[in-house]
Amino acid sequence: MDAIITLDIGGTNTRCALFHTEKDDPVSIEKVNTSVNNEPAINRIIEVVEKSWPKDRKVVGIAAAAPGSIDVIKNEVILAPNIAGWQDYPLGEILEKHFNTKVLVNNDARMAAVGEWKRGAGRGHNDILYYTVSTGLGGGVITGGHILQGSRGIATEVGHIVLDDNGPLCGCGKAGHFESYSSGTGIQHHVERKIKEGAATILKTAAPSSREIAEAAKAGDELALEAFEIGGYYMGIAVSNYLHIFNPTCVIFGGGVTLSFDLIMPSFRASLEKHVLNPLYLKDLKIALAELGDNAGLIGTYEYMKQNV
Amino acid sequence: MDAIITLDIGGTNTRCALFHTEKDDPVSIEKVNTSVNNEPAINRIIEVVEKSWPKDRKVVGIAAAAPGSIDVIKNEVILAPNIAGWQDYPLGEILEKHFNTKVLVNNDARMAAVGEWKRGAGRGHNDILYYTVSTGLGGGVITGGHILQGSRGIATEVGHIVLDDNGPLCGCGKAGHFESYSSGTGIQHHVERKIKEGAATILKTAAPSSREIAEAAKAGDELALEAFEIGGYYMGIAVSNYLHIFNPTCVIFGGGVTLSFDLIMPSFRASLEKHVLNPLYLKDLKIALAELGDNAGLIGTYEYMKQNV
């Protein structure tokens, strides 16, 4: 019997799952710190794969999801800003040589999209937009039953489209991106700017966390409410753009900011209805929260490997 | 031997081509006015197809490209604003019943994209952005060797993405779309607004045509030059958005405004380089003008029918 091992590599933690190929769900999940005491991340990754390795099965492939730009042809990390030394980093080749099995590497948000498509909120749909809204804003797209990757694999940088050329600075250094309005960081930066300008608020610090802002909003703080409202408004602009581009049947939101989605949803929906070219784009459109939580990436890479093994 | 008939239906003219399926190029092309004296367009369309019908071959399919939103599952025109009465119009069914052969209907700009992909500037590429820049701004996308259509076929409304929520009005009634900056109409409207504001110009009328603006620009008129420069600047923003979304290897521009592309290209290229997330998106990227001219739609629908027959 065959097995597949998948990795969801993050800046802080790496999770590793063992799958038996006749089953949908992982047999085991291991979690380690990606880097301890500046040790190269690859050491911990190899260690956790070895720990997950089955005794009585053939591993037909290892599939890794990593944060950042991935060359899916070469299975190389082009740049993962949160992992030291991972620039033009041949992760696939290193794992392939060490474990002597097929290795695939892909972007973590795209793999979460595949997970939600195959086993989560997108089941049964062929045209899906998936957004992960947390510190940053990433995602993946399924179109006509295909995973959109682009020529090298650096497609679906969905957070990095300009919504206003004179807008606030994005984490990437450019201005007015979707991410700079609607990510957790975007919401925080709005509050910080307004506090600097002297806005009234019950928030006590000059740079409150997303959680503090959400709590203030729930307590009725106007500045905090406004920050989520603006995030939702621009999310409506961005998603309407994407509806015009992709005409999907399903839009899925994952990531930490979805915990505060009751604060975002009213302005998001109003803005979506305002900006959409034609009500047809909203007809029969499912808008849903992600269902697989932390396991979306592990399950997505498993499904991705099964398609390619 | 088999034959395929294709139609490129426009608001003013309709062109009809006969193809022998063992050949790439049309055997004949007929052209008629789409509507004369308020006669329904379908009469002229049926007439021109009958005229093109081969005497000694079996017609295995008719493929029609039409302007507007097309339901590619039902082969119905959802809305073609330039053709009277074409709302929820079952063009495919009507032609199928009349000619007793398979009929496909799709969007004209998307079919031109397919033409350029298979036989024009996009040959050999699997990931292509195609823009037709004329009165409006439409296009099509090939991703991973697939034609992007969306769930119903109303995807790739590429001109209708918001670049600035407070921007100028678009032909569709929304604000700040790519089309409202970079189409021929967008460029005209910029000049009209500035003339109203009292800007100095050699242009003699309050609402000059695209051609007059291009001539004024070539004569050094600052307002005319500015209009093309702004069109190019926003085109750079929009195309960088699309590079981040699709990571293509080829970007193709067609349509009448490409006749003035020497006026647009400098600001387009500078803006593209400014807005792109990473130079990798521009590496090995072919940026080219369309090669098939008026025949792109007729050839694209032929290739589309061959894929689906």
TrEMBL record, chains A, B:
Keywords: Kinase, Transferase. GO terms for molecular function: kinase activity. Pfam families: ROK. The keyword Membrane does not apply. PROSITE patterns: ROK. The keyword Lipoprotein does not apply. It comes from the Bacteria. InterPro entries: ATPase_NBD, ROK, ROK_cs. Belongs to the ROK (NagC/XylR) family. This is Glucokinase. It comes from Pelolinea submarina.
